[in-house]
Design goal:
The chain is mainly alpha-helical. The chain is built from twelve helices and no strands. The two termini are 46 Å apart. The mean pLDDT is 82.
Length: 228
């Protein structure tokens, strides 16, 4: 059985579902794998976050207005502050769990950063915001395998991840280098040649540039395409 607070929430949802014509006969079983994920990332909480944003009038306009504000990150976070009916999910990860004593945001820092980078900024670009104004707003995300491997190939095994850990634009740059050059393995890569020929506008000092070229050309571990 569900805790009392969960039972009340389930009843409230059922009443809304019934009023909109829902019946058990037309429901489909969803193959969610909730228990294997983090409590904050449970599917029901993700749905609650989406409902908080998209059940309000003109959600896309609200996103653009929040992004253009004086404090865009904070105002974008506020878009996921639930109304009273959904505050239940600030304290629960599922209907089976007991309530936490402290509220947990529906969208945390890391998830918000990924949303800004992959939804908000492309939306702003599509609605006419110049790219140069967008670049400073890229958020640092958790360092994934693509960023880690690309940085290792370019900067060497002993590089300091602090170089890009707190810079969203540097992380995106590493991802772009991977997409453009690294996915096929370094033996097919044109990046080192392009660096030597001065194809790019380089801000690195010559010794740093030469070290990057050597890493691309002479590291035997780089012959295998990334992800293999």
């Amino acid at each position: 059985s569900s805790p009392p607070q969960s039972a009340r929430m389930i009843r409230k949802l059922w009443d809304v579902w019934w009023q909109h014509g829902g019946t058990p006969a037309n429901t489909k079983r969803m193959s969610w794998k909730g228990p294997s994920g983090r409590p904050a990332n449970q599917p029901a909480r993700r749905l609650a976050a989406a409902a908080t944003l998209f059940t309000t009038p003109d959600p896309w306009q609200r996103i653009i207005e929040a992004f253009q504000s004086v404090s865009p990150t904070q105002d974008l976070q506020r878009l996921f502050a639930p109304e009273k009916d959904l505050e239940y999910w600030l304290y629960h990860s599922s209907f089976q769990t007991q309530a936490r004593s402290k509220a947990r945001a529906l969208v945390g820092k890391d998830r918000l950063a990924a949303w800004i980078n992959n939804v908000v900024l492309p939306l702003a670009a599509a609605t006419g915001t110049p790219m140069q104004k967008l670049l400073p707003h890229y958020q640092p995300e958790q360092i994934n395998n693509t960023v880690r491997q690309t940085a290792t190939r370019l900067l060497g095994r002993d590089h300091n991840p602090a170089l890009y850990r707190r810079s969203g634009i540097l992380q995106q740059g590493l991802i772009q280098i991977f997409q453009d050059y690294c996915s096929g393995g370094c033996h097919k890569c044109g990046l080192a040649e392009a660096l030597q020929q001065g194809t790019f506008q380089i801000t690195a000092d010559p010794p740093e540039l030469q070290a990057t070229i050597r890493n691309c050309q002479h590291n035997p571990d780089n012959d295998t395409p990334m992800g293999q």
